[in-house]
Design a protein that fits this description.
nuclease, globular, 17 strands, Extracellular Endonuclease, Chain A, metal ion binding, eight-stranded antiparallel beta sheet, RNA endonuclease activity, endonuclease, alpha+beta, three-stranded antiparallel beta sheet
Length: about 325
């Protein structure tokens, strides 16, 4: 395309995987063979749109011919360095995605002035922060190990985007929150995968709101639970991660919730379950392969969206008349 000095090009389906590209492609070519010699770069910027508590919405996407094409949005609290929630479209086409895409470095953008946000996620910093909060280096070393540490947990997942350009755009810190690694690789990963497959199989056209709520706690030297932050009273380690999946055409939705703490007891996680679990013993959710009672990989449950809102009120208003399963 660069040799033709054009900004955009249209590929038209011929048959099977073959496409034609009048004006830029010589003959027909395999769609899978179309590659770029460089990455189209994404943009993350504040908008004038407002979300919960009057925070400004951030949009992430691409500019083509002076038109902004959004991939996802983030509701971000700059005072606490806290991502409340993100939202993105998920349709049947998102059931598959380009594979073999390298993971780029995480980006701060312009949203963390004066803060080395990447450093706050390092394991050494995690241990130091937790040691101060619990009053013990030894205790902090038990909480943070080589296998049990806080990862940069994607909200909009890398694989929620179909192509490499979109996947690379998910690596902004305004799309992440501290998430215990076994949970990140456990029930949260199962939810991401199963949800994409289910939306594809059922033909749903959804908006997925992915967010955080509360502050997780660890026991200090005296056995008392204390709130965990990674930067004084900023960058809280969330108590809950959730996905609210909503199909506006059906007016149906479901909230999937997980507890981000492998150190709680069974009694504690049950006390933190704030709704009737709509997935448990419900054949309509057999597609969901998580292990909800596993505290070590994220104790999990599902809520009716209206019941979910009574505890977590920060999503925008939309009408939900039943579960989306």
């Amino acid at each position: 395309i660069s040799s033709n000095n054009i900004q955009t090009a249209t590929a038209q389906c011929v048959s099977g995987a073959l496409v034609s590209g009048p004006g830029w492609l010589n003959g027909n070519g395999a769609f899978g063979g179309l590659t770029c010699d460089g990455h189209a770069f994404h943009i993350a910027e504040f908008t004038d749109q407002r979300c919960f508590n009057n925070f400004r919405v951030i949009r992430v996407g691409f500019v083509v011919n002076n038109v902004f094409y959004p991939k996802y949005f983030s509701c971000f609290n700059p005072n606490r360095l806290e991502v409340l929630y993100t939202w993105a479209t998920q349709n049947p086409s998102h059931a598959v995605h380009q594979t073999g895409v390298d993971r780029p470095s995480w980006l701060a953008g312009s949203f963390f002035p004066g803060v080395n946000i990447n450093n706050l996620y390092t394991q050494n910093h995690q241990r130091n922060s937790i040691a101060q909060l619990v009053g013990s280096v030894e205790l902090a070393n038990r909480y943070v190990t080589s296998t049990q540490f806080l990862a940069r947990g994607h909200l909009v997942a890398k694989s929620d985007m179909i192509f490499a350009t979109g996947q690379r755009s998910t690596f902004y810190f305004i799309n992440a929150a501290p998430q215990w690694q076994p949970f990140n690789a456990g029930n949260w990963n199962w939810l991401e995968q199963n949800l994409r497959a289910r939306i594809g199989a059922a033909g749903y056209h959804t908006t997925v709101y992915t967010g955080t709520w509360g502050v997780t706690q660890l026991r200090n030297q005296a056995g008392r639970l204390v709130n965990i932050f990674l930067n004084n009273n900023q960058l809280p380690v969330p108590l809950y991660f959730y996905k609210v999946v909503y199909d506006a055409s059906r007016r149906q939705g479901t909230a999937f919730v997980s507890i981000n703490n492998p150190h709680y007891t069974l009694a504690e996680v049950r006390a933190l379950t704030f709704c009737t679990d709509r997935c448990r013993n419900n054949n309509a959710f057999n597609w969901l392969r998580w292990q909800p009672d596993r505290i070590d990989i994220g104790y999990s449950f599902c809520c009716d969206v209206n019941e979910f809102r009574r505890t977590i009120p920060h999503l925008p208003a939309f009408t939900v008349n039943g579960l989306l399963a």
